[in-house]
Amino acid sequence: MMMKNLSLSLKKINPLIQNNPLRFLFFVSSILKNYTMPVFTLQINGKEHKADVAADTPLLWVLRDHLGLVGTKYGCGIAQCGACTVHLDGNPVRSCTLPVSAIRTAKVTTIEGLSKNGDHPVQVAWDEVDVPQCGYCQAGQIMTAAALLKRTPKPTQQQIEDAMHGNLCRCGAYHRIREAIISASKKS
Questions:
Q1: Of 4, 26, 111, 158, whose CA is between 20 and 30 Å from 84?
Q2: What is the pLDDT of residues 30-60, one digit of tens each?
Q3: Is 39-113 a domain of CATH 3.40.50.1100?
Q4: pTM higher than 0.85
Q5: What gap in Å lies between CA 136 and CA 140, rounded to an integer?
């Protein structure tokens, strides 16, 4: 039905372009009026936010481009590097491939919402151990580590390896990341 209406509408365009460009613009705007995007109500970092975006827009772009929460980073766009990790109801997820429509009523926590003053045990340990080199992957690393410690307060080396294996660090700071997670587990 939509294609039929669209093809009928397109047949009207040619005379409009030839005769009156302003009329053409009015015509196009009247068509677009019927194709509005949904408005999503999201719970992010304990606050309600509205996002007027297409249903398939990845959460990462809603956070960064629409809400100004730029702590979550774009790394690969295919959920392979972990730079875009956020919490969805406390579980680490890759926001670069998660469509905003899939969130529904879940609570989203970004690096900005992990703690008010940057004093989450993982953030403190990261600072004490001096983990970051370039820092680009660190938000995703911290969010994954925080979720691990919430599930498993005293993880073994193997549990740390298993939880963190999908988070890539181009600088190779893996030994400091593990050291910080162990340190944070002693603070919790």
A1: 158
A2: 666 666 778 999 999 999 999 999 999 999 9
A3: no
A4: no
A5: 9
